[in-house]
Specification:
The complex is a heterodimer of chains A (about 600) and B (about 375). By secondary structure, chain A is α/β, with parallel strands linked by helices. Helix content of chain A is about 40%, strand content about 20%. An eight-stranded mixed β-sheet of chain A has the order 7-6-5-3-4-8-9-19, with helices on both faces. Chain A has a five-stranded mixed β-sheet with strand order 12-13-14-15-16, sandwiched between helices. A four-stranded mixed β-sheet of chain A has the order 2-1-11-10, with helices on both faces. With about 375 residues, chain B is mainly α. Chain B is built from 16 helices and six strands. The longest helix of chain B has 26 residues. Classes of the chains: A alpha/beta (about 600), B mainly alpha (about 375). At the A-B interface, strand 2, helix 10, helix 12 and helix 13 of A face loops of B.
């Protein structure tokens, strides 16, 4: 019996349920279906093609693409020939692409379209290992580019077909040799500090994560099955989306639907009506803001009725949160009436009505947002994990939810809090094999006893649930010696639909301040309603009326915190933060150091003059 | 897919007539109500409704050429007349010395013939439409009505002449007579059901036509004939198709229109009748099939309502001799007001109002 990899899992599904649908992707207005047998057929073909290109076990194959079928074909295909999959974020600028490809020593790159091919070609001189660039979308490339390394996807598959005819058993033979210590994938962490680091996840790591999270129902209850469907819309190179699209699919037969793009997620949600949905806090904040704005801008009667039920949703959410996610008779009754009058239609319109399990992770989320969504009837669960432990750490389990915590440790995994530093440590078979070409950093992460140092500070709540205070590096110690967790304040601010970004500053300073970026959609709408003309983002955010609006939000948040933890002053960010300008990571997390450097003048201006 | 109506897996699913569960249930409900109505309403009202159904077929025809293809036609009364006389002549008494008659009383035959003859007439007129547009086309089609009026007044062998007229077509299907009271059903009930079935058939046919390649070509011609030609639509051909199909529908409607009263009078095919049909599609909704039906039912039922007016408003009299304003004048004024009102306030007609109501509930609890 050979080791179970995602490739063997897909193959076994193709044998057991060949005609069940595995993937759907929208093309020319229609959802094109791919059955398990077609999925495996193409993935194996990719494996053959990689063999034809001379890929040996342990060689790196990179994918630089939005979520689409070819992403999974390549992932499964390269694992089947024991190669290592490296995912690149579609938003990675050329310089980062150069770094990632060079650092990983990628031999074959699957690039989605002209945009990504251009990035790779721009830096191709620095990449001696890169032998082939396979492009999926020929538009703009075919007949115009003559780089000898370029290869069109159909030609790539044809290569695989030839190889299959010549050596029909080659992929199967290679697969049989797979061992648990093979590196299955390199996941580059986004790196809020310093350059990205390549996390090596082995076949055994992935297998453990699939068994823990998918098959034993580490998240959902009952465990996911072929009846579930998910929408794949977050970057697949991130471990969270890999769990929910690739591993949920291979491990449990969940049907994966690819969103057309991140902009069309709302429409695609409405069409697909997924049953399991994972989102980062930004997505949930956006959904919350969207619902509030859309109800607020509805016609009179709808506004009154919708507004009433949204307020009730807050109450229902609070009741649910106080009861571990379970209804009381009173809240169930209120919800039942609200369901008929508002929630059913609302959830249907937002595409969330069939969601039986919703998870938020990858960053801390404001409890208000969780409660509100729970009140609407969305079973929200905050989960916690990181790339280095294959996303296995803690999860709120259905029926035992504690809002504000990240839940209980998974069964069969060890988790403890360091007595002196308060750092969260985990130990289980999912702990990564090390950083690629960086043994020093690896040694800093894993101690000799096998404990993984997560870098997050946490505490136990009621002895069962884990609450994360903040990243260790992010903790602010004010000049007064007070320890403050900025993420708590920031999330409270971001819970307002008008605020998109909030960066709290105050390390070694007299008091806390914040840089605040507005959400252009909602504030733009607010300005329109209040007949406030504006031109650009900068113009809008510097309007005295808008500053007053933000001041109101800040005051409201301050009222919930102790005096030393209050934001005394704030400034508006003059631009939208951007990945390309280096202010955000590929996962849209704020790089604190970059932001406080870029806007150093703004920051200083908040500490000049007397304190208020 | 079950439970996910918007997850389209094929274009057929996307294009389906009843593509949402809501539409399926509404259609089923409407058909049930329509089938049960004859057992609940008085006969005289059933006759009015049956007339409305026939008028709907005619209105659909006008909507095809004016609404979908954008060719203003004031000549609809002419094509209705052709249909009416073709059917009447075919099913007329062959032994009559006064009138032409062939004694073919089978409904499918004379109905089809009426449609085809009218369609042929439409085809002959169509080349005019290929050369003219807008107001000029309206004037030319207006001319048709006057030619028709003159022709039918003087061709006594066919029409019986002004003030005399001739019996309408005899509806008979497989030996079953519709225009006489039967053992189980009354004449009105039978006619109502017959017209309802015919309306469903012609309505679905038209709906299928307009969502096909032809329908899209017609819309292209309407929106800008030059642009349509550039993208490869043969404008002349599609204008001819529009006129031919529209006239076919008018012929069918004309053939059936007088079955209820059993009598055709040549003076009735005048400009007023054309205007009435224009009113139907404007009130109902331009370029919609269901709108045509709504408009036709609305306009046909209007006289029933105005007839009740003298009882409520004493200054309106029911006969022309009593002085003051008569119900017929009120009716004419109402047509005018309705057309003006709808064009200004609801250019998409009754159908537009329906769409607005539907969208309101569909988007609940949001507004868009």
């Amino acid at each position: 019996m050979s080791t179970a990899t995602i490739a063997t899992r897909v193959r076994d599904r193709a044998i057991a349920t060949p005609n069940v649908i595995a993937l759907r992707e929208k093309d020319m207005g229609l959802w094109q279906q791919v059955s398990w047998s077609q999925y495996w057929y193409t993935a194996e073909l990719v494996g053959h093609a990689l063999l034809a290109l001379g890929i040996e076990p342990g060689d790196r194959v990179a994918i630089h693409s939005e979520n689409r079928r070819e992403w999974l074909y390549t992932d499964v295909g390269s694992v089947s020939v024991r190669a290592v999959t490296v995912g690149l974020y579609p938003t990675n600028p050329a310089a980062e692409v150069a770094y990632l490809l060079r650092h990983s020593g990628t031999r074959v790159l699957i690039a989605e379209d002209q945009e990504q091919v251009d990035k790779a070609l721009a830096v191709a001189g620095e990449l001696p290992d890169l032998e082939r660039i396979v492009f999926v979308e020929p538009r703009g490339i075919r007949h115009r580019y003559d780089d000898p390394r370029l290869l069109a996807w159909p030609d790539f598959l044809a290569l695989g077909n030839e190889h299959r005819e010549a050596h029909p058993e080659a992929v199967q033979d290679r697969m049989a040799g797979a061992g648990p210590d093979d590196v299955a994938t390199l996941v580059y962490t986004s790196g809020t500090t310093g350059p990205p680091k390549g996390v090596m996840l082995t076949v055994a790591n992935v297998d453990y994560a699939i068994r823990e999270l998918v098959e034993q129902g580490g998240f959902t209850s009952p465990p996911p099955s072929h009846k579930d469907c998910v929408l794949s819309y977050l970057p697949l190179c991130h471990v969270a989306e890999r769990v929910f699209s690739c591993w949920f699919g291979a491990g449990a037969g969940v049907t994966v639907h690819f969103a057309e793009s991140i902009e069309t997620v709302t429409t695609n949600l409405y069409e697909v009506q997924p049953t399991v949905l994972f989102g980062v806090p930004r997505i949930w904040e956006k959904i919350t803001a969207g619902v509030q704005i859309r109800v607020g801008s509805a016609t009179w009667l709808k506004r009154k009725i919708g507004g009433y039920w949204l307020r009730r949703a807050d109450w229902i959410g609070e009741t649910l949160a106080a009861n571990g996610g379970k209804h009381t008779p009173a809240s169930r009754l209120v919800y039942a009436v609200g369901y008929v009058l508002c929630y059913r239609a609302l959830m249907d319109r937002t595409g969330l009505r069939k969601v039986r399990y919703a998870a938020s992770g990858a960053a801390p989320i404001a409890p208000e947002v969780l409660r509100f969504l729970m009140g609407l009837g969305l079973p929200m669960h905050e989960v916690y994990g990181m790339t280095e432990n294959s996303a296995v750490a803690t999860a709120n389990r259905p029926g035992r939810v504690k809002v504000g915590t990240v839940g209980e440790p998974h069964e069969g995994s060890e988790l403890r809090i360091d007595e002196t530093t308060g750092e969260i440590l985990t130990r289980h078979p999912g702990t990564f094999a090390g950083y690629w070409h960086d043994p020093e950093a690896t040694a800093r992460m894993i101690d000799p006893d096998g404990w993984l140092h997560t870098g997050d500070v946490g505490e136990w709540v009621d002895g069962t649930h884990l609450r994360i205070t903040d990243r260790m590096k992010d903790l602010i110690i004010t000049a007064g010696g007070k320890n403050v967790a900025p993420s708590e304040l920031e999330n409270a601010l971001k819970a307002s639909p008008y605020i998109k970004e909030a960066v709290v500053i105050g390390d070694r300073r007299k008091y806390l301040t914040a840089l605040i970026g507005i959400e252009p959609d909602t504030v733009g709408h607010w300005a329109q309603v209040h007949r406030l003309p504006y031109s650009t983002y900068h113009d809008l955010s510097s309007k005295p009326e808008v500053i007053a609006l933000v001041q109101g939000v800040v005051d409201e948040v301050n009222a919930r915190f102790a005096a030393a933890e209050q934001v005394k002053r704030f400034r508006m960010l003059p631009k939208l933060l951007d990945h390309e300008d280096g202010e955000l990571t590929a996962t849209m997390k704020v790089k604190r150091s970059a932001v406080s450097d870029t806007f150093a003048e703004l920051v200083e201006s908040m500490y000049q003059g007397g304190t208020r | 897919m079950r439970g996910r109506p918007l997850l389209y897996l094929s274009y057929g699913q996307d294009m389906a007539l009843l593509n949402t569960p809501a539409k399926r249930w509404w259609t089923l409900g409407l058909v049930l109500v329509a089938v049960l109505l004859p057992f609940m309403l008085e006969d005289d009202l059933l006759v009015v409704l049956a007339t409305a159904f026939v008028a709907s077929i005619g209105a659909i025809g006008l909507n095809l050429v004016t609404g979908y293809a954008g060719q203003v036609s004031l000549g609809h009364a002419f094509f209705l007349a052709i249909g009416a006389y073709t059917a009447a002549a075919l099913s007329g008494d062959p032994d009559s010395t006064r009138l032409i008659g062939f004694g073919i009383t089978s409904l499918p035959i004379w109905l089809l013939a009426a449609g085809l003859v009218a369609g042929l007439a439409g085809l002959i007129v169509a080349p005019l439409a290929a050369r003219l547009r807008g107001l000029y086309l309206a004037i030319v089609t207006l001319g048709l009505v006057f030619i028709g009026e003159h022709l039918f007044k003087h061709w006594r062998d066919l029409t019986g002449g002004v003030g005399v007229g001739r019996p309408a077509a005899v509806p008979e299907l497989f030996g079953l007579q519709f225009a006489v009271d039967g053992a189980i059903f009354t004449k009105a009930q039978k006619l109502y059901l017959l017209m309802f079935v015919l309306l469903v058939i012609f309505g679905v046919l038209a709906r299928n036509l307009v969502r096909s390649r032809i329908g899209r070509a017609l819309a292209a011609v309407r929106d800008r004939d030059l642009a349509a030609e550039v993208i490869g639509v043969d404008v002349t051909r599609y204008k001819m198709i529009a006129f031919a199909v529209s006239s076919f529908y008018a012929g069918v409607a004309g053939a059936l229109l007088y079955v209820m009263i059993g009598f055709v009078e040549p003076g009735s095919f005048n400009l007023a009748m054309s205007v009435q049909y224009i009113a139907m599609i404007l009130v109902g909704g331009v370029a919609t099939i269901s709108g045509s039906i709504m408009g036709a039912v609305f306009i046909t039922l209007l006289p029933r309502v105005t007839r009740e007016l003298p009882a409520v408003l004493p200054f309106i009299s029911s006969s022309s001799t009593a002085g003051g304003i008569t119900i017929f004048q009120v009716e004419t004024i109402l047509y005018g007001l309705l057309i003006i009102g709808f064009l200004i306030f609801e250019p998409r007609g009754l159908f537009g109002i329906w769409v607005r109501i539907r969208t309101y509930w569909k988007s609940w609890p949001f507004s868009h």
